[in-house]
Amino acid sequence: MVREEIVAEGSPMIMISMRIFFMLFAVCMSLFTVQKCDAAQRFSGSIFLQDHSRPSFVVINPNRVTDEVKIDLSQAIPRGYRIGSSVLTESGIYFLVELDYNCCLAKSKAEIEKVRPHLFHLTEEGVAEIPIDWPDQELELYPWDLYEFDDKFYITFVGNEIPLVPKDRWPSDRIYMIPKSGGKARELYTKCRLKNFGEPSQRDSQPIEYGDGVICVRSEDLSVVFVHDEEEERLFSLPVGTAYLLKGWYEEGKSLLLWSESPNVSLVVDLQGNVLQEWHHGYGSTCCWNIYGNMEGGILFRRSSTSTLQEDDRRPKFGNHDAFCTERIKQNKFGIYDIRTGDVIPLNGHKGDEPYSGCWSKISYRKVQFERLAVAAWESKELSLPLTECAISAAGFAGSFDDDS
């Protein structure tokens, strides 16, 4: 009788304890599930690559890099033309179409510098041209990059080297601004430097999108400046220490990555040029990284080297020896570097520069939407573009090849 009373009195305590246990268990499982989902979706945006061997694009899920959509415009681009720079946006893809240097005869190559690029917009409805009224004067310039903003575009041009002309009289690199709906192209800035300071394998000194403008290197005194509309704001001077190559963002909007080959050092600096982190590369390696884009917590990069030897067998270490852990990234391959964990995710199917270039777009990865863009691209008719000497020579070569076959 006494035992039954004890059990009866203890039963409510046991039930309360069990309830507390199951509640704590449910909370722990919920936290685990949330953490697991956060880990699986640790990056936002989309990886956007452009294939230069074929007029096409690839959009990749940064959280599952085998999940991708290919967007092919090859049937829409006339012979003698190629896709230049491109930008992925909420509404579709903006892209430049320019004369293809590789298809031109020697006598018509000078035409490339005179014919201005055409700007197009691919949406789910198809491809439409955005009209641009270019200046009348002929400039020794070659189109370089496209930047898209809420109310405008920037298009950068590289001034070509002119034989037998003093270097100080070569045309300067410059930035043009075009209204979002099209219209008159206005020369915005003529003091930027777009050509590499480093070796050809290095991607440096490229303007970096920031706010309503771009951060670039001023050619006359190697200052890093912020250019937006009519204003120029000086940030800091290069070099910082020995690092003089501006590679790109380390953390977008917060810090930049600088690099020098000799001594082989990487610096992370804030927007005033103050050094935040420093890495010295060991083992005589000339391994470096070309940065193609950033998102919170991550960097899209391509492994590069100033060496003529392949460095695939090198295994640089993270920390004081290497800025990125590159054990799994071969030379000239793209990878995603996770700043928070130090992990590297290789994009094994896509080589850098040739044939691919790329960026990390802020547009969320929505596969169904990108697949609709792919259908619209495939169904697009050939674009109506001027029949230039360069295009005629390309068509002539293609016709001769077809006849021979």
Defining key terms:
four-stranded antiparallel sheet; 38% strand; 405 residues; alpha+beta; disordered C terminus
What does this structure look like?
With 405 residues, the protein is α+β, with helices and mostly antiparallel strands. 17% of the residues lie in helices and 38% in strands. It contains three helices and 26 strands. The chain has helices at 2-40, 367-378, 389-404, and strands at 46-51, 56-60, 68-72, 81-88, 93-99, 118-123, 126-130, 132-133, 141-148, 152-159, 174-179, 183-184, 186-189, 208-210, 213-217, 223-228, 231-237, 245-251, 255-260, 265-270, 275-280, 287-295, 298-305, 333-338, 344-351, 356-361. The chain has a four-stranded antiparallel beta sheet. A four-stranded antiparallel beta sheet has the order 4-5-6-7. The chain has a four-stranded antiparallel beta sheet with strand order 9-10-11-13, with no helix packed on it. Strand 20 (265-270) and strand 21 (275-280) form a beta hairpin. Mean pLDDT is 79; it is low at 1-8, 30-39, 307-321 and 397-405.
